[in-house]
C-alpha cells in the first residue's frame, strides 16, 4: 500500500483552508499535514513538514504565493511540488507562477473531484492540470513578454533528437503520455523515456517547465 500524499494548504482565508482540509482529508490517498496563512509561513511549513504538494494561494499578505513558490521550488532539499490555487482574476499571475517553479494550477471554483485529481497528478510529476487551458495562458504570456531565447536554452534544444523535439511539441500542446504514445504509435514506456530525457537535457524540474521552455525557446509559437 502506498503512503498517502502529504498536502500543505496555504491560503490567507481560514474558511478556504478549512474547506480544503476537509476535502483533502476525506479523499483516499491524501492527507493534510499543515496549514499556512501567508507565504512566509508556507515556506517554513514546507521545510519543517516536507509535504509532497502545497496548495498555494497567490494573493496573501506579506510574502505572496509567487515569492513563496520561488523559495519552495528553488530549494533543492525539498521534493515539494507547488499547485497554485487561483481565480480567473489572477490570470496575470499564472505564467509568473509557472516560471517561479509551480507544477500547475487549479481554479478556486474547480470541482472537488478535479482538485483531488490535480493533487495526485502533480504529486506524480505529471504537472499541469487542464493542460490545454494552461498552455493557452502560457502562449499568451510568452507572446506578451517576448522572452528572448537564452544561449543555455538554445544549446539545450540543439542537443535534442528530432523525436525528442516532436515529443516536446506534444507536451507543450498539453498532451498526456498516453496521448503522445497514441500519436506516435509507440509504447507508453518509450514516451516516458523521451520525457525523462527532455527533463534531463533541458534541466527542467517537471512538465510544466518543459511547456514554458518550449514557448520561450520559440520551438512552439503562440497560436500555432
Automatic annotation (TrEMBL):
Span of domain HTH luxR-type: 153-218
One Gene Ontology MF term: DNA binding
Highest taxon of source: Bacteria
Q: Which UniProt keywords apply?
A: DNA-binding, Phosphoprotein, Transcription, Transcription regulation
One annotated GO biological process: phosphorelay signal transduction system
Q: Does the keyword Transcription regulation apply?
A: yes
- Residues bearing PTM 4-aspartylphosphate: 57
Name by which UniProt lists this protein: Two component transcriptional regulator, LuxR family
Q: Give a yes or no for keyword Transcription regulation in this entry.
A: yes
The residue ranges of the Response regulatory domain are 6-123
**One Pfam family named in its UniProt record:** Response_reg
